[in-house]
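PROTEIN ENTRY
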Amino acid sequence: MDGFARGVAHYNEVKGKSVKVLGWDTAKKDGTFVGGFSDSAKALQISKNFEQQGADIIFPVAGGLGGATAGNSIASKKSYVIWVDTDGYVAASQYKQVLLSSVVKGVDTSVKEVILEAAAGTFTATGYQGNLENGGTYWLLTMILQIWFLQNSAMKLQHLVMQLNQVRSLFNNL
């Protein structure tokens, strides 16, 4: 969440805006948590609380509980969702009308690296931290953003791509 919060802070600085990140404190490394991966009622309540505080984009870093958030976004028509772990547009297509993007765990990348290292005899049990740079996580744009791009001028698109690349570099430090 630090990378996401830093991306928002960078956006605010560059654009002179005051977008707020709800549910995460970068200084304390603490925030709003469901407390597990099975309490969809609590995930739904957290999503509703964020909307009541003015959230229009929710990033529910809670595995499969993203469905509660996305379902609420569809019903309330107040927010959009950044899906986590998988390509939400494929894995949770029933929510695609509210999915802005997905932050995907690059499990395939880490498994491939382990196999290559084992085959080369260089495997160690050293910890692995996936990020955008090493492919251990990646960011996908969904059709909502792609359609928006198509409806806007090429210049706006180029500018937004530059901004997305800046945010991507900030996500490298998650």
